[in-house]
């Protein structure tokens, strides 16, 4: 409201400016005719990684992958418009232009329509001060490797994936947010920078390649995934690579920010990202006539929601915060969390209980929303200034916790597609059999999701004991997760076809421990074998074949 009042006063005081003020418009084009680009030469507009991601998931190059015809952009520039961002998926451009300039643009034969999406607001010039930090500063380490972040990854059994070597290595994650102050110097990201895993950032508000400013929100969001200070905080995907993309204009809420987001997710797609996280959402705006209604939350109405679904169709796992409207009159999820193929993430407290601020579902067309949930109340996040942590609340932080774990899970199964990972996460969750409007499918168990995705693992005893593989070559692995002192005494015996015991082990294990026992089999003769696994008083049997 303060911004609107200030603007009205300026208009009253300076009528000359009112006549010449610039507006922001979305200009949509009719076609991509006579384009210099071709679907047969995707290397001209997509990175090798983006092409490989499509190839790996069986996704073709389509016309909406082609950039906007550059001649069309030149024509609207020639008529006095300033092009801010461009969308290939929607064949459009976001521009600054006076009303008479827009009239000229509308008359062009290749212009389909124009839509006003925001008022001009003079952006503050960037005055970057030199950034410094104390190189000798240290921190107090906790005995727990995950430090203060142990609870939020432990709730998802994500630490078990890390134990198995899956912490996001080789995965590329895009973070779309309102700014990333000090990410380029924060000690939590030292290894990220040293390893060259922090790609050059992009700012689609100022249209430049520097996003490490404007807001600490994105910095805190990133820390839940990428932080790597053992004993203080380790994120859910500390080994992944990241690109920071600013799309949100902090201080205002206008539809043009959706256009910024579309440009950002298209850029992420062109880089070949595997997972995107967005801790933003849109429902109402500074200009009331732009507001959405709940009926618009159908995944088909809002531009950003449609773009999110397109991104998913290109093979990206799109993760988005559900929103923080649970206590408001609105209550429901926002844009683009309503997208059909978007993983909307709700918030819970440290005990796994619904956080009352977390936006609820379903979507207007009946989809289960949020899809899953993670810690969003007093989530541990990194300080942007020093070796310190703090607590922050909002689904903004539940979402990246989930996105990081999704990247770690996908690392284990690169042959799977984005929706395979999506569905496994849902089906591993605590309410998979009875999803609701507050937590969706519930709190995922990433160890369980890992087991569900693996076609090399045979479950024994429900979902607690696993054996891999049944067709043996060099090694046989027994893996199990102990629970509440129930699975303490484990005995494994293996017999050959003559019923001779050729391997035996018996141990007592602590509760809530991931146990992995490896049995070398390279010296075994080819043929059939039988494994007998005793868990306390319960016996499981499985047949094995040595090649």
Describe this protein's structure.
The protein is an alpha/beta fold and 547 residues long. The protein folds into 3 domains: 18-119, Alpha-Beta Plaits (2-Layer Sandwich); 150-431 and 439-453, 3-Layer(aba) Sandwich (Rossmann fold); 458-546, Immunoglobulin-like. 24% of the residues lie in helices and 24% in strands. It has 14 helices and 24 strands. The chain is elongated.
- Radius of gyration over C-alpha positions, nearest whole angstrom: 26 Å
Largest sheet: 7 strands, parallel
Count of domains: 3
Examine the secondary-structure arrangement and name the CATH architecture of the largest domain: 3-Layer(aba) Sandwich
Which percent range describes the beta-strand content?
A: 15-25%
Give the strand tally.
24
Question: CATH homologous superfamily of the largest domain?
Answer: Peptidase S8/S53 domain
Strand order in space, largest sheet: 6-9-5-10-11-12-13
CATH-defined topology of the largest domain = Rossmann fold
Termini separation comes to: 73 Å
Structural class: alpha/beta
CATH class of the largest domain: Alpha Beta
Please tell me what the overall shape is.
Answer: elongated
The tally of helices reads 14
